[in-house]
Each structure stands twice: as C-alpha cells, then as structure tokens.
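Fill in residues.
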C-alpha cells in the first residue's frame, strides 16, 4: 500500500501546481473578481482527490468527496454575494448528514483500508 501512495505523490503535486496556476491565472485575468480561486479550486481538487486516492466510491469517499465539491460551489456563491455564510454553513451541515446516511447504504463498500474489529477470522 505504501508503494501506491508514493506513486500518487507526484500526481498529487502536479494537480496541486495546476490548481494554483489556474487559480492565479483566473485572478490576474479578472475572471470572477473577488473570488479566491486558489481556495475554491483547492476545495474542488480535494473533492476529486478523495475519489482518486480511495480508488473509487466507498463509505468514506462518498461523504468526503462530495462535501468538498459542494463546499467549492458554495464558496463561489458566497464570494459573489449570492449566498451568505449564515446560509452556507447550515447547508454544509445538512449535506454532511445526508452524505452520512448515503454512506450507510448496503451496496456502498467500506474503504479498502478498513479492517472491521470484533470479528474472529480464525475459521479461515
């Protein structure tokens, strides 16, 4: 598992550099003035990165990934004065609750790194 994490490190650095560059370019070009693009794109990259790092959809990525993606969208809305912090925060709390419920669905697998406790596997 450590080998795969090392293999992902250069890709993560490359994606981070692209994100910073795109955010910087959007800012200096005056696209969406007043929007902190580095923060907003960083949230989106984290959202997608969770799915990549976990190898797809599992009980952890189905909560964390969409949370960061929606937080990125809400961040743009807040920074453009289309949404207040007093609305953004409860939406994110509700979203976490909904995503935690979704993660309980039987067909969504646990993360590959999860090892259930309390089960005796000595019968194998």
């Amino acid at each position: 598992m450590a080998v795969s994490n090392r293999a992902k490190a250069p890709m993560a650095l490359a994606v981070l550099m692209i994100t910073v560059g795109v955010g910087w370019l959007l800012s200096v070009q005056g696209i969406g003035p007043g929007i902190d693009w580095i923060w907003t794109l960083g949230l989106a990259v984290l959202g997608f990165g969770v799915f990549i790092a976990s190898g797809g959809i599992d009980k952890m990525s189905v909560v964390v990934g969409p949370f960061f993606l929606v937080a990125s969208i809400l961040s743009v809305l807040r920074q453009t004065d289309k949404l207040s912090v007093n609305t953004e925060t409860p939406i994110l709390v509700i979203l976490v609750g909904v995503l935690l419920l979704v993660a309980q669905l039987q067909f969504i697998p646990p993360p590959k790194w999860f090892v259930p406790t309390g089960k005796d596997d000595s019968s194998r």
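The radius of gyration is 18 Å.
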